[in-house]
């Protein structure tokens, strides 16, 4: 199925100030998605900055009347995926440095818009989320923490709904395996 992209004329695009007002309500959500994808605040801030810049530069590709948040999450996810591929080719940090950066992450990015589910997660759960491969992590994050539908996730990451369903199933299974000990220690029941 091909989607028709409605291109807006350049003169109809929002000004920088209008764009800022449009995305202001989305910033905390985009930051939270970025933090869960990258595993730390510094990289999440960089990813958010790149997302805003890319969205503004490509505003003519945004289809008016559709979900701006989902469109921006798609941009953010694509930027993360591309950066991950580059790091995989040229790894820049060791596992120890990644773990250290994760532990240094300030959990003080408090905001009234912050998702309650994120507040309930402790470091071990967030660390387990970071340990699953990024293609599964992105889908689990968008489904569980952001509440996106299969269709919205498919649009955000640019793949078919069947792939989203498969990645969500496999991502949840990987997360469940990583959290089995944690669940036993805390008295939680994990479905098999």
Q: Flag low-confidence runs.
A: 1-7, 89-120
Strand count, sense and barrel status of the largest sheet are:
none
Number of strands: 0
Mean pLDDT: 75
What is the CA-based Rg, rounded? 18 Å
| Number of alpha- plus pi-helical segments | 11
Helix content: 55-70%
Detailed description of the structure:
The chain has 192 residues and is an all-alpha fold. The chain contains eleven helices and no strands. The longest helix is centred in the middle third of the chain and has 22 residues. It starts with 15 loop residues before the first helix and ends in a 6-residue tail after the last helix.
Essential attributes:
192 residues; 67% helix; disordered N terminus; 11 helices; mainly alpha
How do the strands and helices of this protein lay out in sequence?
Elements: H1 16-23, H2 27-38, H3 41-57, H4 68-89, H5 95-104, H6 116-120, H7 123-131, H8 134-145, H9 150-157, H10 161-178, H11 180-186
In short:
The protein has 192 residues and is mostly helical.
């Amino acid at each position: 199925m091909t989607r028709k992209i409605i291109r807006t004329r350049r003169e109809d695009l929002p000004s920088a100030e209008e764009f800022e007002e449009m995305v202001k309500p989305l910033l905390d959500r985009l930051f939270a998605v970025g933090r869960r994808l990258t595993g730390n605040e510094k990289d999440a801030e960089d990813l958010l900055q790149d997302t805003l810049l890319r969205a503004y530069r490509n505003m003519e590709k945004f289809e008016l009347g559709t979900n701006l948040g989902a469109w921006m999450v798609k941009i953010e996810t694509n930027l993360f995926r591309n950066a991950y591929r580059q790091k995989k080719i040229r790894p820049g940090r060791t596992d120890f440095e990644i773990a250290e950066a994760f532990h240094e992450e300030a959990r003080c990015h408090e905001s009234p818009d912050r998702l309650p589910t994120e507040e309930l997660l402790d470091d071990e759960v967030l660390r387990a989320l970071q340990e699953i491969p990024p293609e599964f992590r992105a889908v689990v994050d968008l489904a569980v923490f952001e509440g996106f539908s299969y269709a919205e996730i498919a649009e955000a990451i640019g793949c078919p709904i069947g792939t989203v369903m498969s990645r969500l199933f496999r991502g949840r299974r990987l997360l469940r395996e990583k959290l089995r000990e944690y669940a036993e220690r805390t008295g939680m029941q994990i479905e098999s």
